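Hi X.,

You mentioned you wanted examples for the new student's onboarding notes, showing what a folding record looks like when two proteins sit in one file. Here is a clean example. The first protein comes first, with its sequence line followed by its structure tokens.
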Amino acid sequence: MSSRRPVDVLAAMTAQHPIAVLPPPAAGLPASGRRADMVRFTLDVTRTQHRFIKQFVLESDATPSAATRLLWQLVQEDGTLAERLRAALSRAASL
């Protein structure tokens, strides 16, 4: 087991293989990149779902967060879609 601190290991790795530095966050957003009125929402998914989401958002040039926010916006705005989701949730709960 190494007695080196993780930060020292990371520094040594990046000295050998420099990494790209991300641009600063967009104006008006806090350093975290989230708007002040946003809250974190965590979602547990299967490995298969995770792989699908990653591929889908990559192909869509989006982020998982943006896709999730848009999905919920669609549910909020489309009553038919909201009812389809409620029915599917009800069926899943009865299994």
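Then the second protein repeats the pattern, sequence line and then tokens:
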Amino acid sequence: MSLNKSQALFLGVITYAVYQLKHIGFPVEVFPCDDGNWKHDTVFIYNTNRKRMISKREINATLQYLYDEGYIQDRRTKYEIVDSSGHDKQ
């Protein structure tokens, strides 16, 4: 599920995932930036459902959960949906 270091480097100063969790059935990784600026943080949501794409409502619910639980500093944190229908479900 984790991105390797070279995959994460394209994002800039991000070098490792600090938080890995599952929300509403989707694996999620949060990559906070070392500089503490939320605008540099990135959330990866892995779409493991082969039958449909994750909805905007589910994305918003996931970002709200991450914000409420303190994983991200702002609900406007950038995110990427990663198609990983072949991903091992944990």
